Each structure stands twice: as structure tokens, then as C-alpha cells.
Amino acid sequence: MKLIFLKQSLSFIIIALVMQYTYSQTLETQIDSIITIVFNDKEGPGGVFLVAKHGKPIYKKAFGKANMELGVNMTPENVFQIGSMTKQFTSLGILMLQEQNKLDVNDAIVKYIPDYPNGEHITIHHLLTHTSGIKDFTKMKSIMSIARKDLTPKELVDFFKDEPIDFQPGEKFAYNNSGYVVLGYIIELVSGTTYEEFIEQNIFKAIGMNDSRYANDREIVKNRAYGYHNRGAFTNKMYVSLSIPYASGSLMSTVDDMLKWQEAINNNLLVSQSTIDKVFSKNTLNNGEQFTYGYGWHLKNIDEVPTREHGGSIFGFKSMGVYVPSLDIYVVGFSNCDCNSPTITTKNIAKLMIDTFKKN
């Protein structure tokens, strides 16, 4: 009798393991097929994708080359410039200072930058939510005159601050890199340290993001993925001083470190839950109209399931991250060619994960 029971138990365990293996293989195959629609050139630039459930990676793979000239394959440990995903870190930096009572998001920026035009009407909240109306310096025709210059944050702010405003603060939502440059400058003025040092000490080191840093094209960066353009043929990325994207887009990271970042947010390791609630609250314009941006994240949905999203684009690189709070699913993708955007790919993987886990 015992022998029969043991055989039945072993059979059940084997069947369960086979089913689990088949399921994981099927999910892996499905994710592979989504990614290789775009990231299918084994000899060209590639990317890295990570999918996590409950904070644990269930998929992590690299595609293509990290360095085309040397024929170096991409690995999941490669370090990428993440472009505007930097804004998440700038936002949390501001809110960490608010929790220390060193600033308030309702403060007018003239409190910190006395000579800022119209600064008495523009608040930190306006900067965080892209509703300030100040000119986006990346859209100015004169941007190339400073693109290769190493500017101080004050010099960069001075470059655009006297431009006519596009609209009155709070009147519209218009994605704006200048606002996050000003936020970075305010972090420096309030903290008494550089933006780079503030993020390094208070975020990266605090939560163990050991492979993340302020980007630098001159220093040796272990496991760096090199950036490329494709304008009829692949070329190395154009040189731009990384003092220019600054607090709006100058950080580097890995997919594993970005998962640590997501987990730090989920577990209130840097700011309180009440602050996190504010970060992920939709905001309203002066006329009461609601828009789908919090503080550093787009607040959208996939198949009516709420998501928190943000991408990035900087010379030679693109990035995208999607978090699904209700299912605790995080998907992040990096590309080392600005010709291959991971945005649709990452969203399609998130959709697959939603469809898969909503059924279970």
C-alpha cells in the first residue's frame, strides 16, 4: 500500500515539475518571440530585457552586440545610458528633500533661483508634472551650440531661462526636459552637493545599485554597452556632453539595478508610503482637467489594467520600464541603438504577463 502511495506521489511530483517546466518554457518562448521582432540582428546593436514577478526575475536575456567593432556579445550585466528614466531618480530626490523639510513641492522656484523669470508663478510641482510652461531646451534651434560643452547646472539653466514661456504654469501638460534640469539644480542648491553625488550617495549606494552611475564617456565603465545610430549604416553615437541632459537624462544603469530601484519604491526604502502615493497620483490642470502623469512616471494602463511607465531616449540608447502594481510585475528593456526602441516591445511583454497572470 505504501509503495503504491509513494509511486503515486512521485508521479504527481514529476507531472507537476513537467507542467511547470513546460509553462516556463512556453512563457520564455513567447517573450523571446516578442523581443526578436525588433531585436533580431545578432551582429548589430542589441538590448537587454528583464521580467520580474514579486521582485524575482523570471526572464532575463541579452540580444545582439554590446560592442560591434570588437564583436562583443551583449550580456544581461551590461550598463546602458537610460535617458529620461533618469527623471524617476530626480523626482524621488526632490521628495526625499521634502521629507527632510528642506523644500516643499508647492514652493515657487524663485525661492531657490531668485532671478528666474516668472519664477514666482512656477512651482516645483509644475516642474515635476511638466506643466510649468517653460521652454524645453532640447527643442531650441540653438541646442547644438552647447551640445558638446561641459556646462555647470547654472550655465545650463541660464541657457533657456530667458526664453518666452509656452503657456502659463498649470495651463497644459507638455513633456519638458528643462523642468527636470531646474529640479536637478534645486537639488544641488538645497543639498549643498552636486546632483551626481546626491543621487550616488542617497539612492544608488543606499539601495545597492552598485552598477548605476552618472554617465561618463571618458571614464572606464565596467560592462559598458556602446551606443550606436543607424542612418543607412551603423555608426558610433554622436558625442554630447553629459552635463547637457543632466538631471533630465544622464544616468546609467543595468536591468538588475532597475529591479532594485523598483523594489525600493515598493518597500518604501527611500520615502514614506504617503509620498509614494503622491508620486503615483494623477494630477489636474488649472481648469480641473486630469492628466496621466505623476511625479516622474506616466500613469497609464494596458487592457484597462493600471501601469506605471517611463521610457528614455538619448544619443545611442533607448530605454523603457513598465510596472503593473496589481500583479507586482516589472518589465524593463534597454537598447544600445537609438534605431531600436524597446518601448513597444516592453509594453507587449507587459501585456503578455498581464494576460498570463490574470488567468491564474
Automatic annotation (TrEMBL):
InterPro entries named in the record: AmpC-like, Beta-lactam-related, Beta-lactam/transpept-like
Record-annotated Beta-lactamase-related domain positions: 43-338
Pfam families: Beta-lactamase (PF00144)
Signal sequence bounds: none
Name by which UniProt lists this protein: Beta-lactamase family protein
Organism: Pontimicrobium aquaticum
Origin organism lineage: Bacteria, Pseudomonadati, Bacteroidota, Flavobacteriia, Flavobacteriales
